[in-house]
């Protein structure tokens, strides 16, 4: 049986299908970008010295990041709550609505295990993706960004999850 020889691959695929199945069905490139480039910009550091520093209050920023990721992956959170914690969330409301309408999505959650600031406005987030309480994707990497003074799950993190799905279609902004 293939699953016994490649359990990690099977788990990744299962997680991607559970998390991203509704995205593949609900999304198309309705924003006129042709899928060729993202309207969302990276928050890469401007200078090498900026990359070495983090936000003014790293503890508060980390707490906000953990809360944002918790809400984003909370099956009980409303679409409005998820929009509020996702970078450019309003533009991605259709994607988040699709998650909320899918019964399998209610089984998916995530636990942040670490946050590493890469600049005053960006961080790498390590998390465990869970399905029905079981970790299916340990030590996954994502990112968070400071958008207007509020730390949020980055569009890049959402797009990375979308790319895991073998059936995913183009998602606006990815």
Automatic annotation (TrEMBL):
Bias (Low complexity): 36-59
Record-annotated Low molecular weight antigen MTB12-like C-terminal domain positions: 58-167
Signal peptide: 1-26
PROSITE patterns for the chain: PROKAR_LIPOPROTEIN
UniProt key word Repressor: no
Chain positions covered by the region annotation Disordered: 34-59
InterPro entries named among the record's database cross-references: Mtb12-like_C
Lineage top rank: taxon: Bacteria
Keyword match Signal: yes
Key words of the record: Signal
Pfam families listed in its UniProt record: Mtb12_C
Family the entry assigns: Belongs to the MTB12 family.
Protein name: Low molecular weight antigen MTB12-like C-terminal domain-containing protein
Organism per entry: Streptomyces zhihengii
Lineage: Bacteria, Bacillati, Actinomycetota, Actinomycetes, Kitasatosporales
